[in-house]
Amino acid sequence: MTSISTDLKPRKRLEDKNNFQRFILINRDGTSVESIILSVPDIQLREEIISNHFLSRYVHWFVKEDIGANLIGRDNPWDFEWELSNSENLNIEITSIAENEEQFRKRKYEERLATNLYKEEITLHELEKITFNFPNEILNEKIAFYKSVGTKSDDFVANPYFNRKGLIFTSRIDEKVNELDNIIKQAVQKKLTKNIQTRKM
Fold first, then answer.
1. 80 near 72, Cβ under 8 Å?
2. Radius of gyration of the chain (CA)
3. More reliable by pLDDT, 10 or 174
């Protein structure tokens, strides 16, 4: 199997890092394409990392001088509102894009599971959701037992995935993909609609 490198890779070595996720796409001809993305289960922290990185690149590429930055707004309605010492205000809205909608949903399922790997207990509702996304006959039996003894949806139960290491997810990708410019336009439009609705509330 021949491996093909992509630009979606960090520039430094990853041996001592644990905040990334590796994706390998195996093509029909046996070649593979690997991409590595940031993987931080805490969504708030992940957004902060992305915002800070974008801000540093924005200053480096466009402002081209050392300036100070003060965070003046969070989720109101922009994800981040930065006040820069050059009298400029910078609004940052973080959104996800995907060339394949089905694959995007599957990655969200994986992310939900990854978020719970460090919790000894989770709610029955969360266990049901994870088991729906990743069918498991044994866990279905456990869920049925919990319900039979009167466990409520918001009651905490033992997390069968607690501290699991080295999970590997496999899936197929629909060959139909959307153009990147259309994907970006659709994502931005959704965010604009969301922000307008938030302001009206």
1. no
2. 21
3. 10
Residues 113-153 have pLDDT tens digits of 888 888 999 999 999 999 999 999 999 999 999 999 999 99
pTM: 0.62
Q: How far apart are CA 131 and CA 73, in angstroms?
A: 37
Residue 188 to residues 82, 95, 102, 181, Cα–Cα distance (Å): 20, 8, 19, 11
For residue 175, the model assigns a pLDDT of 58
142/146 Cα distance (integer angstroms): 6
What gap in Å lies between CA 193 and CA 201, rounded to an integer? 13
If you average pLDDT over each of 23-32, 175-184, 192-201, which comes out highest? 23-32
Cβ density class 181-193: b for 16+ within 10 Å, e for less: eebeeeeeeebee
The beta strand positions in the chain, using DSSP E, are: 3-4, 20-26, 32-38, 69-74, 80-84, 89-92, 121-123, 156-158
